[in-house]
Amino acid sequence: YNFLSLPFLYKKKKGGPPDVGKMLGGDEDKDPEAEKEKEEERQEALRQQEEERKAKHAKMEAEREAIRQGIRDKYGIKKREEAEAEAQAAMEQASEGSLTRPKKAVPSGCGDDEEEENIMDTVMKYLPGPLQDMLKK
């Protein structure tokens, strides 16, 4: 079959463009009141559609939140905002009487003077004699 010869693929137009009557000077809408009413109706329809869309999305989000809460309950997970709020409350409680920011926890072994001396003694054992004398001064 020749694909171009199939008649049902072609759309048949009858008559001219839809605005031919207006172009020839016939039935033109010159009434500003009617145009204003149409515009107001269109704006109202848009507002109504937007409200319906927002309501639909709010309903879907509520359903999702119910599912999320079910999962949190099942696995014992805290809600993200609640966990952050608890951490913030713990930080505030720890620094309640202090005028400065809370101190950061220092890992064990960092900044201990005794340990630094032990490390230096270990290093000194492996250095040659003259270098040991220079570093001891």
Automatic annotation (TrEMBL):
Residues 33-67 have a biased composition (Basic and acidic residues). The keyword Transport applies. GO terms for molecular function: syntaxin binding. Residues 86-96 have a biased composition (Low complexity). Keywords: Coiled coil, Cytoplasm, Exocytosis, Neurotransmitter transport, Synapse, Transport. It is found in: Cytoplasm, Cytosol; Perikaryon; Presynapse. One of its GO terms (cellular component) is cytosol. One of its GO terms (biological process) is regulation of neurotransmitter secretion. It comes from the Eukaryota. Residues 11-67, 82-117 are annotated as: Disordered. Pfam families: Synaphin (PF05835). PANTHER family: COMPLEXIN, COMPLEXIN 2. Binds to the SNARE core complex containing SNAP25, VAMP2 and STX1A. Belongs to the complexin/synaphin family. This is Complexin 2, like. It comes from Cyprinus carpio. The gene is LOC109094614.
